[in-house]
Design a protein that fits this description.
Layout (H helix, E strand, L loop, with lengths): L3 E11 L8 E9 L3 E5 L6 H9 L7 E8 L10 E4 L13 H12 L4 H14 L5 H4 L9 H13 L5 E5 L7 H18 L2 E6 L2 H7 L2 E6 L2 E7 H6 L4 H9 L18
Helix pairs in contact: 2-3, 3-5, 5-6
The chain binds adenosine-5'-triphosphate.
Adenosine-5'-triphosphate binds next to helix 1.
Subcellular location: Cell inner membrane
Enzyme class: hydrolase
Keywords: ATP-binding, Cell membrane, Hydrolase, Membrane, Nucleotide-binding, Transport
Length: 263
């Protein structure tokens, strides 16, 4: 394994007023540049794990255990970008796309307004948004769900983060659009050398995109290993159950098989 990016030791999280932990003594090492898929049923703690890594837990949550970051804890912007399931989580409905991108870019990079605008347009082109120049002047509601997610990705990567966290980034989208967005994320992660942590219900996506898979169940990490090994030879009965529930897993995945333009 290459150098560690985050060494997580016995990480537990309890939300305010909750009787049970949402994450229970999770230990895991994330390598620099790896693509880690976190899978598990609804409520198993996947988003809690992602939020804890990003320091985005709600106020009053109790977190214990340790996370050792190399070289240091990533901050929003150049440290990490976060893509939420609902692009509404990242987009401000009352500001134009250009204003939002330029603000993020200027907060994190020393660029003039004109340079930031050029970069914003280039980012929109990179996430394959049609007519990026015109898109800068538009507002979030003027785009489809898939396009909004592309814009949210552009915002998340605008400052060139070392880590990208994608929390069910495609599950609100139809299958073909999902595949296109995941392919885009895959390309961006390779191009920019980012570490990727992506949360999904979808074993097929995890199998096609991840180097490693972590399986959560009831707040605990039940299995982790190289993606192929977890898929082909799961150690835990629970992982086998998850796999069995995905009858389509061994059929060809959509990533790499679609062409743009479905949004
Ligand atoms: N803000 C919160 N306050 C209290 N409890 C919460 C909060 N967010 C999540 N929980 C609880 O913590 C547990 C883990 O939730 P989490 O959202 O991490 O699961 P998940 O695996 O991401 O689920 P999903 O796939 O449905 O998003 C669940 O029991 C959930 O109800």
């Amino acid at each position: 394994m290459s150098a560690p990016f985050a060494q997580i030791e016995a990480l537990s999280v309890r939300y305010p007023g909750a009787t049970r932990p949402a994450l229970d003594r999770l230990s895991l090492t994330i390598a620099q540049g790896e693509r880690l898929a976190v899978i598990g049923e609804s409520g198993s703690g996947k988003s809690t794990f992602a939020r804890a890594l990003a320091g985005l837990l709600p106020q009053g949550s109790r977190q214990s255990g340790e996370i050792h970051w190399t070289p240091e804890r990533p901050r929003p912007g150049a440290g990490y970008g976060y893509v939420f399931q609902d692009p509404g989580g990242s987009l401000n409905p009352v500001l134009s796309i250009g204003t939002q991108l330029v603000e993020v870019i200027r907060t994190h990079l020393r660029l003039s307004r004109a340079e930031a605008r050029d970069r914003a347009e280039a980012l929109l082109a990179r996430v394959q948004l049609p007519d990026p120049q015109a898109a800068l002047a538009r507002y979030p509601h003027q785009f489809s769900g898939g396009q909004r997610q592309r814009i949210a990705i552009a915002l998340a990567i605008a400052a060139g983060p070392a880590l990208l966290i994608a929390d069910e980034a495609t599950s609100a989208l139809d299958m073909l659009v999902q595949a296109e967005i995941m392919r885009l994320l895959d390309d961006l992660v390779r191009e920019m050398g980012m570490t990727l942590i992506f949360i999904t219900h979808d074993m097929a996506l995890a199998a096609s995109l991840a180097d490693r898979i972590a399986v959560l169940r009831d707040a605990r990490l039940v299995e982790t290993g190289p993606a192929r090994q977890v898929i082909d030879a799961p150690r835990e009965p629970y992982t086998r159950e998850l796999l069995a529930a995905h009858v389509d897993l061994r059929s060809p995945v959509l990533i790499g098989q679609t062409s743009g333009g479905r949004e």
